[in-house]
Amino acid sequence: MTKPEIDFQGGPPPTELVVADLAVGEGAEAAPGATVEVHYVGVEFETGEEFDSSWNRGETIEFPLRNLIQGWQQGIPGMKVGGRRQLTVPPELAYGPAGAGHRLSGKTLVFVIDLVGTR
């Protein structure tokens, strides 16, 4: 797989988590609370500006879902290894409302996540 391009969406940001499978995997399915290995890219919904990407670091990252933002905890389970999923995450499921102390607080975020492994 190659680094995904995230298309600028336009319009008002969604108020609920939006999950869209871009490619359905054939491998093991990620369960709630699993540890996942992913490649991902994240952009701000309003500007399309990239704020983070494992692709830019040249390696996947592995972590327990319980340590991640709510949008990932809700949006990754059910994904299968080899799949690519886009999550559009409102602030309430990301880094909280504006002023919550994180540089992405108050922002709707869009991630494209490739599930490389799960355990």
From TrEMBL:
<dbReference type="Pfam" id="PF00254">
    <property type="entry name" value="FKBP_C"/>
</dbReference>
<feature type="domain" description="PPIase FKBP-type">
    <location>
        <begin position="33"/>
        <end position="119"/>
    </location>
</feature>
<dbReference type="InterPro" id="IPR001179">
    <property type="entry name" value="PPIase_FKBP_dom"/>
</dbReference>
<keyword id="KW-0413">Isomerase</keyword>
<comment type="similarity">
    <text>Belongs to the FKBP-type PPIase family.</text>
</comment>
<dbReference type="GO" id="GO:0003755">
    <property type="term" value="F:peptidyl-prolyl cis-trans isomerase activity"/>
</dbReference>
<keyword id="KW-0697">Rotamase</keyword>
<protein>
    <recommendedName>
        <fullName>Peptidyl-prolyl cis-trans isomerase</fullName>
        <ecNumber>5.2.1.8</ecNumber>
    </recommendedName>
</protein>
<dbReference type="InterPro" id="IPR046357">
    <property type="entry name" value="PPIase_dom_sf"/>
</dbReference>
